[in-house]
């Protein structure tokens, strides 16, 4: 799935996706609450947070667990491929 993500993203969304995924790699257990993410990185995004989250979820790079956003193995692979 991560290869599909590269082909469907234009540059600003690609950058925002990497920003968000890298943020998750720095969180305990690779997950955080939406409010934490919103407060921490929204100022650094070019695209709306909801759009980036929807793109990453549809590409299986993240998943929503209860009220937390969690990094998946695909998401980690995507970060490593684009490091």
TrEMBL record:
On the tree of life, the source organism's domain of life is: Bacteria
The molecule here is called: Uncharacterized protein
Q: Source species, please?
A: Vibrio breoganii
Q: What is the lineage of its organism?
A: Bacteria, Pseudomonadati, Pseudomonadota, Gammaproteobacteria, Vibrionales
